[in-house]
Amino acid sequence: MRLLGLDVGSKTVGVAQSDPLGWTARSVEIIRIDENKGEFGLDRLGEIISEKKITGVVVGLPKNMNNTEGPRVDASRNYGKMVEDHFGLPVDYEMSGYKR
Predict the structure, then answer these.
(1) pLDDT tens per residue, the chain (100 residues)?
(2) pTM, whole model, 2 decimals?
(3) Alpha helices (runs of H) in the chain, residue ranges in sequence order
(4) Which of 12, 16, 74, 93 could form a disulfide with 5 if both were Cys (CB 3.0 to 4.6 A apart)?
(5) Where in this chain does the record put each YqgF/RNase H-like domain (predicted)?
(6) Which domains occur in the chain, in start order?
(7) d(C-alpha 58, C-alpha 7), whole Å
């Protein structure tokens, strides 16, 4: 089992790969994107998925500092849906953020 972790931003997507057991992850690269131009880096992401024999994807969902979901969560979910539709891989989501 090899998973990719994606940290979706407005200009880049951070890509990390898990070890074969899924215990740890290490950075792979940062893919530049331009949401306004419809450039989402899917070609490069596909190359990584193929090279690394990826079997699933985890997309981080960043909460706001007040523990609410904002527009970046929506954008991250949309990106995950694109990845799922484009590559046919299972996509899970991990919520991170601040707790008070």
Answers:
(1) 899 999 999 999 999 999 988 889 999 999 999 888 888 999 999 999 999 999 999 999 988 888 888 899 999 999 999 999 999 999 999 986 555 5
(2) 0.89
(3) 42-52, 71-87
(4) 16
(5) 1-95
(6) 3-96 (3.30.420.140)
(7) 9
